[in-house]
Amino acid sequence: MYILGIESSCDETAAAVVENGETVLSSVVASQMDTHGKYGGVVPELASREHLRAIVPVVREALERAAVSLSGLDAIAATSGPGLVGSLLVGLTYAKSLAFARGLPLIAVNHIEGHIHAVILESRRAGTPVELPALALVASGGHTHLFRVDENFGYALLGKTRDDAAGEAYDKVAKLLGFPYPGGPIIDCLAPHGNPLAVRFTFAKMKGNALDFSFSGLKTAVLRWVEARDLAAAIAARRALARAEPHASLEQWLAVTQPETLDLLASFQHAVINELLTRAAASAAQIHARAMIVSGGVSANAGLRAAARAAHLPYPVHFPSPGLATDNAAMIAAAAFPKLLRREFAGFDTAADASLKLA
Ligand code: KG4
Ligand code: ZN
């Protein structure tokens, strides 16, 4: 069975064709990085406009690369939330129009469920399916959530961030220090060049649910650290590099980043990874998980992957391959597959929901 997936919840326009929920025949992602980079974050109005420009060619390319025509599809799936409403509307409306015109079933997918299925897809493909119940940590620019994933793909929310998402903390810290958006990849590359124990970050004790996260204190601590130093010239040099060379190399970044800033970045990354893994492992123990899934943009982090391996947890920890960690449409088509089997279709009145909940 062939499903066309469409994803447009934030700043990537993506389309993919996935066969039987496990074979990615094509996955096309048009990034808007160059549009938003200079603003240090996603500008919603620009994102909608870019989606409108990209949606038709991206879907066409996904079908062409998969060598599947619209009449060969079994269903069309689109992200209906959470995300930016103007962005979601473009992909969802286009999916509805195609489904209506072709008489195909429409499947609405929660973006977070998509991230979880990026890992389930690859594990099935590799012949080592994720054992359920599993604990899923979804950490991206918009969310940091812990879910129990049940045998029939039901979800229970165990913990979430009370303020900033983990990826958002990366992006804000990068911006404070003059690095471009998104901050995660660049901080991840620079962190191994500093001392992770140089700067001690303290976390407020969580009242209520001990499995909830809080990352806003970390950003404030970095702001205080920056204010206590004379970094204006170094920050200006990095901003200039970001403007002049949108794809600057690691060596170029190292040349404009002093050792104490490298230490700060290493310590920041160390603190974030520690928070994520500690709470994920505690949640997994609580639900007697048989596996852990780590997904979302932050799961691309090399430091997080190394720390998860070094933790020797008593169950397998599954990460997506880098191309499926950040936003893509293969994960949306994969999440739609069990819904297609259950004939869980969406009506043409399905609304884009910016704060759609999973579970
Ligand atoms: O899943 P995603 O593509 O979009 C959202 O749903 O938000 O995640 C993007 C987020 C950004 O905040 C970005 O800085 C972060 O993921 N990210 C990373 C890395 N690669 C992307 N964070 C840490 N380390 C990385 N290597
Ligand atoms: Zn995402």
What does this structure look like?
- This protein has 359 residues and is of the alpha/beta class.
- It folds into two domains: 133 residues, Nucleotidyltransferase, domain 5 (2-Layer Sandwich); 184 residues, 2-Layer Sandwich (Nucleotidyltransferase, domain 5), CATH 3.30.420.40.
- Helix content is 45%, strand content 17%.
- It has 13 helices and ten strands.
- A five-stranded mixed beta sheet has the order 3-2-1-4-5, with helices on both faces.
- A hairpin with a 4-residue loop joins strand 1 and strand 2.
- Helix 2 runs parallel beside helix 3, helix 5 crosses helix 6 and helix 10 crosses helix 11.
- The radius of gyration is 20 Å and the shape is globular.
- The structure holds 5'-O-[(R)-(carboxyoxy)(hydroxy)phosphoryl]adenosine and zinc ion (ZN).
Would you summarize the structure shown here?
This protein has 13 helices and ten strands. With 359 residues, it is an alpha/beta fold. Helix 3 links the parallel strand 4 (75-81) and strand 5.
SSE topology sketch:
Elements: E1 2-7, E2 12-19, E3 23-31, H1 33-36, H2 44-66, E4 75-81, H3 85-102, E5 106-110, H4 111-125, E6 134-139, E7 144-149, E8 155-160, H5 166-176, H6 183-190, H7 216-227, H8 232-244, H9 250-255, H10 259-286, E9 291-295, H11 302-310, E10 317-318, H12 322-325, H13 330-341
Parallel strand pairs: 1-4, 4-5, 6-9, 9-10
Antiparallel strand pairs: 1-2, 2-3, 6-7, 7-8
